[in-house]
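Exercise 7b. Backbone tokens:
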């Protein structure tokens, strides 16, 4: 047991409040503190209460709660009692924390508080060692000191399969954000949509509709009541907003301004999720920029359920390499890490290479500059369309990679860029291919394309397809 007289009280109230703030905003710091902190170190009752609920949740579920989740836990707990003073103290503290999300000295607070806790752990170990010495338990003394020295220096060691089963079965029901395209969201393919902690990538040549597809994903999430955070590095915030208006209200984007009153009326009393659009100039935002922005929003009480990044290829890498492909690969790795850290699904897009512009089907080999981007992503969807198809509003969507279910699936899609909408024509227009090497995959698609046309003679294949040839030449 740690010294009962030890506390953070000597550092003052502001310091103690910043310790809790650091725990809520830095999961790595929390992983270090969980091994050494004792909530009794807090002299202020409302901070000890918050810290106790925070670590109790992490002990049970092996993940640290977000600020919004902790608020929900505390609110539910306080409903059971009549401690008005404690409730008011907690509300006042959270409001002040949100008003000052970045006090500027959290790093100092983290270092001093962690050092304090580690010293208390070592002091307690030395006291235990004295008792062990009296009992001549010399080998245990060594282990006691080694354990005390090591705590607080490394993160949680991982998931214990048998002891930590509660966390496993709690998350067994996959938490997903649907794409809104039923044919993709089915269990055999995306199993409900893009899951928390996952990275989805849409690949297409320039001008095909990557940004429109990302807008559609965000709008469909909003229809399910999900808060969407949309980052744009090319279009302005208002341009992106107009695209959401056109999708959500089924109005051509060039008519949005003319139908202002009609659109505003549609949003009244709607159950749509909230949308925030943040613009950064091309090649200026890093993943650290995105992370800091998300944390500032969280401290103000707004948490996204889905992040859209349009698009990752024009972000700035946090490290400089001689080769662009290495920088791009790092950007995607950092995005995947951000998705996992925040437990949020992230959709982004990637430009295909020049060969992809001339291909009937864009596959993984067409990802511009860095094939390594495909290795990082959980799902890769590609969109392809020829010039004649643009006029007719047709294209093809290919499931190039998929960790959640089947891939190698090809769909004929109708594309309405005026409303940022994509629709798969019908189920019989899906063409399956074996997941194999690129040549074998294309051969399988070619064969199935011909088989489909023979089996369904009245099926309308793309208007531009006039012969019996497959879509892969």
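Sequence design result:
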């Amino acid at each position: 047991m740690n010294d009962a007289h030890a506390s953070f009280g000597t550092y003052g109230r502001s310091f103690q409040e910043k310790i809790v703030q650091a725990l809520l905003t830095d999961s790595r710091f929390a992983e270090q503190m969980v091994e050494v902190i004792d909530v009794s170190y807090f002299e202020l009752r409302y901070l000890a209460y918050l810290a106790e609920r925070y670590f109790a949740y992490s002990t049970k579920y092996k993940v640290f709660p977000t600020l919004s989740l902790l608020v929900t836990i505390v609110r539910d707990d306080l409903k059971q009692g009549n401690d008005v003073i404690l409730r008011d103290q907690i509300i006042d503290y959270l409001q002040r924390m949100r008003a000052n999300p970045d006090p500027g000295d959290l790093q100092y607070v983290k270092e001093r508080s962690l050092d304090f806790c580690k010293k208390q752990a070592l002091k307690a170990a030395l006291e235990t060692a004295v008792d062990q010495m009296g009992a001549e338990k010399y080998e245990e003394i060594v282990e006691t000191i080694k354990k005390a020295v090591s705590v607080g220096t490394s993160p949680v060691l991982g998931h214990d399969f048998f002891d930590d089963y509660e966390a496993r079965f709690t998350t067994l029901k996959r938490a997903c954000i649907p794409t809104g395209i039923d044919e993709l969201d089915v269990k055999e393919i995306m199993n409900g949509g893009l899951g928390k902690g996952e990275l989805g990538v849409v690949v297409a040549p320039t001008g095909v509709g990557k940004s429109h597809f990302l807008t559609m994903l965000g709008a469909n999430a909003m229809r399910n009541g999900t808060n969407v955070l949309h980052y744009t590095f090319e279009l302005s915030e208002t341009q992106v907003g107009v695209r959401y208006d056109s999708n959500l209200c089924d109005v051509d984007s060039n008519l949005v301004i003319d139908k202002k009153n009609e659109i505003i009326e549609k949003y009244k009393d709607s159950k749509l999720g909230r949308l925030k659009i943040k613009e950064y100039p091309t090649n200026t935002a890093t993943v650290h920029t995105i992370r800091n922005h998300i944390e500032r929003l969280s401290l103000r009480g707004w948490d996204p359920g889905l992040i859209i990044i349009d698009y990752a290829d024009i972000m700035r890498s946090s490290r400089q390499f001689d080769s662009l492909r290495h920088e791009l690969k790092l950007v995607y790795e950092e995005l995947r890490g951000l998705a996992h850290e925040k437990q949020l699904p992230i959709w982004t897009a990637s430009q295909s290479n020049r060969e992809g512009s001339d291909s009937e089907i864009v596959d993984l080999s067409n990802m511009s500059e860095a094939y390594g981007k495909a290795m990082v992503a959980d799902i890769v969807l590609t969109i392809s369309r020829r010039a004649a198809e643009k006029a007719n509003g047709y294209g093809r969507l290919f499931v190039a990679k998929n960790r959640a279910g089947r891939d190698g699936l090809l769909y004929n899609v109708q594309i309405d860029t005026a409303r940022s909408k994509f629709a798969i024509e019908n189920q019989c227009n899906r063409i399956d291919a074996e997941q194999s090497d690129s040549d074998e995959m294309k051969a399988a698609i070619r064969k199935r394309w011909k088989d489909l046309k023979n089996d369904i003679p009245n099926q309308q294949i793309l208007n531009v397809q006039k012969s019996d040839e497959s879509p892969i030449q």
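Instructor comment: The first strand starts at residue 176 and ends at 177. Residues 431-438, 448-473 have pLDDT under 50 and may be disordered.
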